[in-house]
Amino acid sequence: MSDTNPPAKSLLDPATQRVDPAIPADTVVPTKPRDPVAVRRGSFFALRREIPTWQSLFFAVLFIALIAGLWFAVTRGEEDRLVRHSILPSPEETFGSFPQLWFERELTRNTLASLERVALGFLLAAVVGIPLGVLCGCFNWFNAFLAPFNLFGRNIPIAALIPLTYFVFGIAERQKVMFIFIATVAFVIIDTATAIRDVGSRYIDTAHTLGASRRQIVMKVLVPLAMPSVFNSLRLLFGLAFGYIMLAETIRFAGQSGGLGDIIIQSQRRGPREHIYLVLLIIPLIAFAIDRLLYWIQRQLFPYQYGSDGVLHFLVRSMAHGLEDLKGLVIRPKRLAAVPTAAPPTDKQ
């Protein structure tokens, strides 16, 4: 009887396509793993199937066409229309009032006024919120100290801030700017602290090994590594702030531009109703254009994250190196004091 092992049999008999009876019943039959690329390119309803750019554009245009067709269908006709004109004007009636919105309602001036208020308020929130968020992410005691403020700012209804800002800052431009600041600064702090905490501990350990100080670890390790996430959060929060400004523009101060929110309020009170729908269509277009601009800046600032050419990253690095060189000319680095050495012993005669 031979001691050599017989050749391994296939678990599946190719002739009968049945499991070989010589194999124990509890043996798990291995299956060939499916190619994930083939799965993504397979069925139309495959989970997480990747689609080309033209399909993304096609489905987006298809959705817009369906909404426009439904809008036209329910507002078609004069007397027998499904939805009355006072509730929903037809596309022709809505877009036909655009010249009046542009010239009589000063659409450009009011749009720039709203953007200016959002930009100033959100810039102030970023200037205050990012340093506080860095401190919260680095020191747990500071995070616990600001926890009540972050809890208040994250959960308070935004509409409740309107009378508060009226009482404190009046109804002029300062009130609208401070409304955006108060409504967004807590979110900036929380998102910045989260981005700082998400930086891997191995980077901090490496910096400690190289002899970096606490300040150097924060400014040269944690902040640069967290900035892509922080900027992405700021880009999303800016769109949120642009929607908040409509609430702050419910009251117009004498001699100032009312903004897009004022156009909606005045159209609701005095008409025409078509201007309400036009402004509601214009706001997402402006927000989308700003978002794309900020996304381009984001890609150029962090090319290692998004694979861009990094024009802005090069400019920022050049400015940072120039400031370091200028600092070296103004502030001389401290020289290490020489350590005294003991004199060699002399032989006594």
Structural account:
The chain has 349 residues and is mainly alpha-helical. It has helices at 36-40, 53-74, 91-96, 98-103, 107-138, 140-155, 161-169, 173-197, 201-209, 214-248, 259-270, 274-301, 303-306, 311-330; strands at residues 12-13, 18-19. Strands 1-2 form a two-stranded antiparallel sheet. Helix 10 (214-248) runs antiparallel to helix 12. The chain is globular and about 120 Å long. The N and C termini lie far apart (96 Å). The relative contact order is 0.08.
Supply the key terms.
349 residues; 2 strands; mainly alpha
Head-to-tail CA distance between termini: 96 Å
Helix content, binned percent: 55-70%
What is the mean predicted local confidence, pLDDT?
A: 81
* Strand ordering within the main sheet: 1-2
Could you give the count of β-strands? 2
Which of globular, elongated, flat, extended, rod-shaped describes the shape? globular
Radius of gyration: 32 Å
Number of helix segments? 14
Structural class: mainly alpha
Return residue spans where pLDDT drops below 50 for at least 5 consecutive residues: 8-20
Report the sheet with the most strands, covering strand number, pairing sense and barrel closure.
2 strands, antiparallel
Q: Give the topology string: H per helix, E per strand.
A: EEHHHHHHHHHHHHHH
> Which strand-content bin applies to the residues?
under 5%
